[in-house]
Specification:
The protein is an alpha+beta fold. The protein has helices spanning 2-34, 37-54, 63-76, 87-97, 125-129, 150-157, 220-233, 251-259, 276-279, 308-318, 377-388, 397-405, 409-428, and strands at 83-85, 102-103, 106-111, 114-120, 136-140, 143-144, 164-171, 176-183, 185-186, 192-193, 208-213, 238-242, 267-272, 281-284, 297-301, 323-326, 334-340, 346-355, 371-372. Strand 15 (297-301), helix 10 and strand 16 (323-326) form a beta-alpha-beta unit.
Length: 447
Amino acid sequence: MKRRIIYGVVVGILAVNFIIGARLFVQNARAADKDSAYPSLELFSVVMEKVRNEYVDGKKLTYQDLVYGALKGMINTLDPHSEFMEPVKYDELQKDTEGKFGGLGIMIDLRDSFITVVAPMEDTPGSRAGILAGDRIVKIDGKSAVGMGTSEAVDQLRGVPGTKVKITVMRPSSGETKDYELTREEIKVDMVKDFNNKREFPVGADKIGYVRLVQFGENTGDELERAIRRLKGQGMEAMILDLRNNPGGLLDQAVAVCSKFLKRGSLVVSTEGRNPAQDTRVYNAVGSGDELNGMPMVVLVNFDSASAAEIVAGCLQDRGRALVMGEKTFGKGSVQSIIPLQDGAALRLTTAKYYTPSHKVIHGNGITPDCVVPMSDEDAQALMIRQRRPSLDSLSDNDRRQIKENHDEQLERAIDELKGVLLFSKRSGGVQEVASRNEKPSASKNQ
């Protein structure tokens, strides 16, 4: 009798467990079905056939048209930097990397659903026309650009050198809207300049050198090395590296720039994707080591310092190699991978984010300076006017007056900081390195 009771209890428990397990299995299966590709693909096929058979102009559509359109829409929902590229667009991208394209010389990004100028490149159609950082492009060739993706806008703005494009620009600071008709040019800009927008790199009586990186192009590292060599030949004792209004560029050149100021093998930046254990990549300093031998440095940044400029600022800050001064940077720190597809098309897909040596994420956060020095809108505009000209000799009387009436407080503070460090160094009889006020990251295998 007791055995029967025990067996009954055991069987009952197993039955309950079986029922509970079955229910959980069904629930999990249903949950899996909700995220299964097959029902969604079936829905896609039904909609595509409906469009082909019932849309009023359906006879003009091909299956490829519909699939390409769907893929563009899908990828555009991810982030402003991912894109599905048709074969023609992918071919244009490949030419772009070789420098074979015409454009207006303005770096753009999507902000608050507006195509916004991050920074105009100097001595280009955009900068010569007077377009400024923060301007919003609301029309391109008469077509509204509101809600347009960054990649589509770039496609509309670029073209064969010598061709024209009309854009309508709205300046938020004044609410003014203005039309421009610009002629595309092949964009070739010196990446490293001195204070006078030239390549002479003089050193004054204070022995403080000044170098501005316009952008991170293919030869930025080499141009910087030549500038440093010229400055050291004139007895430079401290240096200002100006990254303000620098929209970024090539990752390898950001690493090359950092390598000029760091010990060989030091971690510069790392990238992490969806699976950090598999997708992490580290980039270390190369070359012969710090070419300034610990010389005091200040790095200037502002809101329009982006991408590769943020990598350099974040690296030198984390390493304690330089004092970062100015305003918080833009916060563009994601990696786009190009994935070719079987029919000549390709995906530009955001696959990773950049991290500074202390593992701070750049994307969406930017780099916060050690010493925050805000700049008024008038002073910032005067700075942009001075920077966007091929040389100060080319400034108009109105631009000269605006520059004279405003001053560059960030640069002045950087000079004062370095003067103080040099004075202390001479009094103490040693070399004093001006560095980030943050603690240096602890040693690791990546350093």
